[in-house]
Design a protein that fits this description.
Blueprint lengths: L1 E5 L14 H6 L7 E4 L7 H18 L3 E5 L5 H12 L3 E6 L17 H7 L7 E4 L6 H10 L2 E3 L1 H6 L1 H11 L4 E6 L24 H7 L3
Parallel strand pairs: 1-2, 1-3, 4-5, 4-7, 5-6
Helix pairs in contact: 2-3, 3-4
Length: 215
C-alpha cells in the first residue's frame, strides 16, 4: 500500500486550506507506509488534471492499494477516471459525502460537480453509491434519479445501521472498489475543518463507523 499526497484545489476559493491536509494528516503516520506526492500546479488546472492522471495510472498499475489525500474533492475526477482506465468498468464507486457534487459540470470539474462529470462521460450511475448525503440541490436530485445513483442516508444508518452495512456489503460484493471520502460527511461537532459544514451528519460511535468502513 502507498499513500499519495495530492494538494490539488479547484474549489472556487473556498477550499484553499485543503492543500495542506496531506501534510497534517501524515504527521502522525510514522514510517510504516510508503509515501509519495503529486506536485500539482493549482494555477494551471488543465496541467494539474493531466499530471494527476499520468501519476494515478502508474500507481494503479503498480500498487495493490493506493490512498490519495487531497486537496479538495475535485481531484477525484481524474483519479476515478484513471482507476477505470486501468481496471475497466467492472468496479463500484462508494462516496462518503454530505453533498451530491452533481451540479452542471465545467470543463475542469470543481469539487461541486466532479461526480456528475464522471457519469456524463460514461460512468454507470447505478454503480455509484453516496453515503451520508443530506444537502442536495433540486437539479442534482433530478440527475441522481435519472441515472439511478444509489444513496444511503444518515437517517437510514441511524435507524438500522446493520441493515445499511449489509446493503453496502452487497453493493461492493463484485469487482474492484474505489472509495472517495469527504470529511463533511461527519457532523460539524466531530469535523469542523471544511468550508461546507452541513448539520446532522454522521456522529455515531466509533464501532459503527468502523463497521460501515470495513470493506
Amino acid at each position: 500500500m502507498i499513500i499519495v499526497k495530492v494538494p490539488g484545489i479547484n474549489g472556487l476559493g473556498r477550499t484553499k486550506g485543503t492543500r495542506n491536509a496531506g501534510v497534517k494528516i501524515l504527521e502522525d503516520f510514522g514510517s510504516q507506509y510508503k509515501y509519495e506526492e503529486i506536485h500539482v500546479d493549482n494555477f494551471n488546472l488543465e496541467e494539474q488534471e493531466s499530471l494527476i492522471r499520468k501519476n494515478a495510472v502508474k500507481l494503479f498499475e503498480e500498487e495493490d492499494k493506493v490512498i490519495f489525500i487531497g486537496g479538495d474533492h475535485s481531484i477525484s475526477y481524474p483519479l476515478v477516471d484513471s482507476f477505470r482506465k486501468v481496471h475497466g468498468n467492472d468496479f463500484r464507486l462508494v462516496v462518503f459525502d454530505a453533498h451530491a457534487d452533481c451540479m452542471p459540470a465545467m470543463r475542469e470539474p470543481t469539487h461541486e460537480e466532479w461526480l456528475r462529470a464522471l457519469i456524463e462521460n460514461g460512468w454507470k450511475g447505478s454503480d455509484v453509491l453516496i453515503i451520508g448525503l443530506r444537502k442536495v440541490e433540486r437539479e442534482e436530485k433530478e440527475f441522481l434519479d435519472i441515472y439511478g445513483v444509489k444513496r444511503i442516508s444518515v437517517e437510514e444508518i441511524r435507524y438500522d445501521s446493520l441493515k445499511s452495512i449489509k446493503w453496502l456489503r452487497n453493493f461492493i460484493s463484485r469487482g474492484k472498489i474505489y472509495v472517495s471520502f469527504d470529511v463533511d460527511v461527519f457532523d460539524p461537532s466531530i469535523v469542523k475543518a471544511t468550508g461546507f459544514l452541513e448539520e446532522d451528519g454522521l456522529r455515531e460511535e466509533c464501532d459503527k463507523r468502523r463497521q460501515c468502513c470495513r470493506f
